[in-house]
Design brief:
It is a single chain. This protein is α/β, with parallel strands linked by helices. The protein has two domains: 87 residues, Calcium-transporting ATPase, cytoplasmic domain N (3-Layer(aba) Sandwich), CATH 3.40.1110; 106 residues, Rossmann fold (3-Layer(aba) Sandwich), CATH 3.40.50. It has nine helices and eleven strands. The strands form three sheets. The protein has a five-stranded antiparallel β-sheet. β8, α7 and β9 form a beta-alpha-beta unit. The longest helix has 12 residues. It is globular and about 55 Å long. The protein starts with a helix and ends with a strand. The C terminus is likely disordered.
Length: 244
Amino acid sequence: MARAVVHGAHEAGLARPPVVGFVKVAGRGVYGDQDGERIWIGRRGLVTEAGLTISADLEERARELESQGTTVVFTGWAGQLGGILAVAYVLKANAVGAVRELQQMGLEVVMITGDNAATAHSIARKAEIGRVLAEVLPGEKVAEVQRLQLEGRVVAMVGHGVNDAPALVQADLGIAIATGTDVAIESSDITLMSGDVNGVRLQRRHDFDRRVRPPQPGHGGSRHRSLQRQRGRQQPAPAPVHRR
């Protein structure tokens, strides 16, 4: 998302003065000083806690954009909201087909995201995903995976970011994407070598073993290993995969 915003500013020919005292607030946004003024950029909660006032007009516009499936980023300074940015997620062309195929295999597809509920549900409807866990902060993803496991589910988690790494470890099967971060790859069991969501599909007759080992509390090391070693028997993995 940050790259999209910077790219948009570059295309618009906007100046980018240097920022000092840059701070990232995990899962919420960033702030820093520019020309002696504190600038806030992030989620609604971050800017309101910083004391910035959101006008009724901007709030109405933000909620309208969120209902359309965009993520709204708020920015402001000097006690006032300066504007909002709408970042749109574009579903991959084969995303809906991949979700349908997983569902036809008898698997439940769940979306877990830090986005607000309106945006998350809008995207989920387009992808035909019935269950959504929205507004989940980075540190809460592990707890959500554990909650699913306590429901008696065997959980395969697909992730690519730094914030996904702990949840990939907690899941019964962690699947990373090669275009993601190194820490996500190291925390996973297998890595898809492309961003093609079809790589997540599991052949029904080779669904991963329901008797996989339970999650190991406190396990902080890499668990990126072959399915053969982990499951104790020969098993094909979602293709294409990279094992090491």
